[in-house]
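Notebook B, p. 112. Complex prediction, attempt 2.
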Amino acid sequence: MMDFSRSKFDIVGRIKIWYTLSIILIALGIFGMVKNIFTDGFPLIRGIDFAGGSIIQLQFDNWSDEKDTAQFAQDVKIIVAEYTERAPSVQTTPVAAEASGTGLPALQLQIRSDASLIENNDAQENIYDEIRQLGGEFTVLEESEVGAVIGKELTQRALWGVLLGLALILVYITIRLSFDFAIFAVVALFHDVLILVGIYALFNIEINSPFVAVLLTVVGYSINDTIIIYDRIRENMKVKRHLRFDVMVNQSLLETMARSINTSVTTILAILALLIFGGISLRTFMLGLGVGIATGTYSSIFIAATMLVWWRMKGKKPVGIAEPVGAVTDIIHEEDDELMDLGGEAEEEEETVEPITVRETPSKDKKKRPKRRRRR
Amino acid sequence: MSAEKRIQNWILVAAVLLLAVSVPLYKMSQGEPALKQGIDLVGGVDLLLQAEVPEGEERITTDMILGAINIVRNRLDPEGVREILIQQLGEDRIVVQIPGEDDPEQVKRMIGATATLRFIDAGSDPIPQGTHIRYIDAETGEPIEETSFVPEGELETAPSQAQLLEDLPPSVVTAEQIIMKPEDLVGFTVVPSPEPAAEGEEPSEVALLQVNPSPAGVVLARHTTQHRDEYLALVINNRVAAVHPITESITNSQITWPGLADEPGFSYVALNENLQAIQVVAMPEAPEIGTTIELFDMFGGGGEGEAPAEMEEGPAWVDVTTDKIILTGDDFADADVTFGQLGQPIISFQFKASGREIFGQHTARNVQKYLAIALDNEIISCPIIREPILQGRGIIEGSFSLQQAEELVVKLDSGRLPVPLNIIENRTVGPTLGKKSISDSRSAAILGAILILLFMAMYYRLPGVMADLALIFYVAVFFGALSVLNATLTLPGIAGFILSVGMAVDANVIIFERLKEELKTGKTFRSATESAFKRAFLAIFDANVTTLITAIVLYNLGTGPIRGFAVTLSLGILVSMFSALVFTRLLIEGMLGYKNLQKYSLFGVREADVVVPGKGGDE
């Protein structure tokens, strides 16, 4: 892999590209959400965990090819419809002989309804009896029913969870770094959450309780990734005080690039393995995680850090490192001290960070020199 | 790190590893699974029960919930050997999880019913075990629907009794038609007929059947008011002995039977001693004297002999008026299985003070009569009262096996749920689906792990291999810790684990990227390692703390599967920090003890990139 820290690729100077890309992605997601609000009254397709309802999944062993599966599904729909106000959805999935566990071709049948089918025992028993007459014996793979109350609670809990998590993260980063760092970390986070939710909306992926876990994992990962980069910026603010803020941030991004890519690549490798070879029940979960980790990595680099530059350099020189780096390194403007401000807490940390850089090298002078040389 | 510190850390690592490996091994040697697996992995039933405020109470107390949990546990797992999780959730909810259970219906039956135990005065005739009961309100005479047995299929949809009876002879009667049973009767008296006797004949006599004023008298008054112009039949030993046309309401609790004296073989004295043989049956048409009455059976389809077995066993359900209920489970204190003189299992029981007095009075008056014990609407036992039970203790003898006796004791002890419970969430995963998804996910996880290990070794070379060792250490400690914490592994838990593997890798990546940078500045291997770990620490710490914050929020706000995810994620973060910052460091520093391993190429650094201190000074 190439050595990014030696590259002069200008990230902070190309914010127009990054922001346009992000805005397009977010806009697509919002389009999906608006579309869902018009068709369904809710931005996302809610599964039974959120909306309440029941799911029954049955497997008919020894399902011969001659049987008319489509007609069977239609008949089951009619049977179930007697017990529900709105028509249930019925899906069939053929299972090949090798995968069925019995060595015979099987058929999986999934019945979903927004009404109670299971706790209303009469309905369940009657439905099972009638289905048995039509399709023969079956085994129950899954029966789930969630009351509407629980669904509402889950929605509330998910919202509170995200908000509370965000608030706590904001406080933590403000303490460790500074308030504007915290704000842009949260902006990057919203960016990731919006894209993730947007993808769920756009592709009509149903949300269930694991979605809350995905959402909060993405929040956790995105913030984790942003912090690693911020940490490097924090360090470089002290070590490379001679660099202009935007140049220094760009340098920090390039220095951490290898780590950013390696970490997301390894995590995505694991997710990919589970996505492709793992159980079906894990699939949407893993898809969400994969998307979240990709956007989380992207936003840490291209949103959180670049917005920091935009904010601190507002009204100052044009953003970018188009000029040769060396030409600006020695110019330290008075305003730049302000730019490099990390707040009171960070000043204290200097005690812990500085000594390392000083003590480990023979002298401060010698440490600086090689760096300059390398850049030329 | 000083040599002393290093030895300390090695001991710490060894201790952690020892604990993580020995606990699961110990559990396995005890025949327990090293790690419990969730419903979504092995299949099973996961229910969420919502308690409702019981009638007459203002709110649900913790005691009620705990009582309900005990009862549910007793019902589902009387021997206490099954692995069932029953927990209070929030203020008024109970979670029930039974891994491996594949019959949710049975579980729901056992939990769902708010079982009530009733002691019923059965009079002189035992009610067979298994008989269903329809409770009739003594005041109104109406069936009490909530507690009563409802015949299979709803009466509205099933062919009605009237329809079934249409083709049957009028001699087939339903249980409802029997309006007076032997226990309702007081006795016969004979009075001269109120009608003047014809010339030259002896004044005729009529028989007066006295019934209990309440409730039988009330039932009689209502029936005769509502069914004018129908008939009452006096049935002795299933034969119609006399007919009373209903012309007016009978309010004095006695029925006049004209013409009874004409029947040969009946003597009032004999009848008074043999009231058990007598019933009064309501008939829409006047039956012939001497007709044999058959009892219509809902399940047998009538007197056609279609289901003779049912007929021989007696009616499948009986009516019990509420005033026959002597005591309920609320009055019950304790029950135990003991053994009789012949070694047969018997049940000893004890009432609370409230029940003791009532039970004493009843048993004193009803020696040699039967006492039916009903759980909800089914007779579970019908022992005979051998002697008055004044101390509130007694035994129930019956023809039950030891197992049946134990089950009965559980039912008696568990008594009545203090709060009604409703199932508001049900997740049942069949064992097939669970097994398939765990075997798929397990091989996928192994594949993912191998990919990560390969990637690390190829990209970071020697430190990468060290990181791989640290990752294997991490996985071992992580699962060991789950086993120590007695946590349950679920699908979202596995996902949380994968994410924390990602973070464990990340910690190592951060350290090694740092190490490369430090080496390029021309530091010695030792000092480069030292500063790489020191500098990486802050980044890893801050990043993991923020993720930990979300995991903790997740744990506090989430339920079930989300909590499992939060637990594994938090645990994963802590263990990964330990493994990266302590174990990886020990490995790398230990490795640096070998001079011939101190090569740039082994650390993924090109020699040309290294700035040798002192040489780079001149610009």
